[in-house]
Amino acid sequence: MSKDTTLPDNARHTPISMDGNPTIDERANHCFGCGPANPQGLHLHFTTDTSNPQAITATCHFQLDRMHEGPPGHIHGGIVAALLDEAMSKLNRPLNVLAMTRHMEIDYLRPVPLYKPLVLIGRHLSRPAKADGTPGRKFFHQGEIQLPDGTVLARSKGLFIAIDEKLLAAGLAQTET
Ligand SMILES: CCCCCCCCCCCCCCCC(=O)SCCNC(=O)CCNC(=O)[C@H](O)C(C)(C)COP(=O)(O)OP(=O)(O)OC[C@H]1O[C@@H](n2cnc3c(N)ncnc32)[C@H](O)[C@@H]1OP(=O)(O)O
């Protein structure tokens, strides 16, 4: 069945230019957290440090304005959650896994200010082995939003589950129709 190329992009979720066989990165082009093609996204850009494979990190320097306000002068709590989720999810690629958030918990320690430079950090914590000793599919990560002086404003712990590539392909096929 041929595709209706007259539909607006927000209904298709994938830009017309990516028709064919888009990679997962191309599919993520509209990701609310990091997709460069999402005009309403956060446009977060992360640098990953894999020098210690046991403690991979992903770091992003960012600043938000009133578009994302919750308490006056401060970032909305749901956006704080999205920021932390994004930071943790950025650890999956350097770990060579496609994974989705299964569970996350957040400590909102201090209100997170708008119009201030902030640091968002994801840290890989552990990947427990299965009972038979083979690598498990659960990835535990931590996220933090900090002031530049290191003061932690919000902290998360997340469980990400590796997605079977065959199921992923089926999922992507579903979103194509
Ligand atoms: C269309 C497809 C596109 C895919 C593309 C993906 C890649 C590219 C993403 C890029 C974008 C990223 C963006 C940011 C990251 C998001 O935000 S991802 C979006 C939010 N997340 C979701 O939508 C996920 C929705 N959930 C699901 O699809 C399914 O639950 C999952 C995650 C695939 C897991 O399903 P499942 O395989 O049935 O796993 P389930 O048995 O429920 O739980 C797995 C294990 O975790 C354990 N567990 C559950 N909760 C807990 C807990 N609180 N504590 C400890 N253990 C727990 C369970 O007991 C279980 O353990 P075992 O029995 O295996 O020992």
Automatic annotation (TrEMBL):
Domain Thioesterase: residue ranges: 73-123
Pfam family, one: 4HBT
Location(s), subcellular: Cell projection, Ruffle membrane; Cytoplasm; Membrane
Keyword Transit peptide in annotation: yes
One term of GO molecular function: thiolester hydrolase activity
Region (Disordered): 1-22
The EC number(s) this enzyme carries: 3.1.2.2
Gene3D superfamilies listed in its UniProt record: Hotdog Thioesterase
Name of the protein described by the UniProt record: Acyl-coenzyme A thioesterase THEM4
